[in-house]
Amino acid sequence: MEEKTIDREFRSNLRFESLTKSNWNKFIELFGGNGAGAGCWCMYFRQAKSDHDEGKAECANQDRMKALVWNDEPTGLIGFYEDIPIAWCALSPREDFKRLEKSRVHKPIDEKKVWSIPCTFVSKDFRKNGISVELLKGAVAYAKNNGIEILEAYPTIPTQEKLPDAFAWIGLYKSFEKAGFEIVDQKSKHRPMVRYYIK
Asked: What is the pLDDT at residue 15?
């Protein structure tokens, strides 16, 4: 379950960019024909369940994500190793994620303006190498550079030693902890709310 710590040389070749028109094709390359999983295209938290399920047909979720990007809406960060897209995290103001607004477990704990990281994705060839921690550090750096004061996320604390990759898309708590996030609410034993306060 524990991720390795990547070496300095590998880390020096990592970079993180906002998803834009200019790197859209890299996003397609990273997510592949399946949209990272079952045609999601990272639209799960942005839509009602019925809309998301309907969007799996004929690449509609992909088109919806593309529309956000072409409208210059914040959607997330792509992680690159050299020029290879290897990781992704959704990153937008919390109110952009409609599913969170209806969550009983992750209701807002205050009225502060936060940006949420509801899901992450690492290319299969690069998993279990510490990439997710670096990705979250990249999100923190992005926040610092863009005047974002609070990052919030909703990772899992696994109940078993081996967690299937398909269930790790919300992120593992240990990765967030290593990146400096702290638990701020825990209505669910295994699904805490964590935050990083930019100083």
From this structure: 94
Residue 145 token pair: 């550079």
Closest CA to 121 of 57, 47, 24, 29: 29
pLDDT digits (tens, 9 = 90+) for 125-148: 888 778 999 999 999 999 999 999
Q: Which residue spans within 35-192 are E strands per DSSP?
A: 76-81, 84-90, 92-93, 115-117, 120-122, 150-153, 182-185
Residues of the chain where predicted confidence (pLDDT) is lower than 50: 1-2
DSSP string, 52-63: HHHHTGGGHHHH
DSSP 178: H
- Where are the chain's structural domains? 8-197
Neighbours of 169 (CB within 10 A): 19
Which pLDDT does position 1 carry in this prediction? 38
How does DSSP assign 100-116, residue by residue? HHT-SSS--SSS---EE
Whether domain 8-197 has CATH 3.10.28.10: no
Read off the pTM: 0.89
The one-letter amino acid code at 87 reads: A
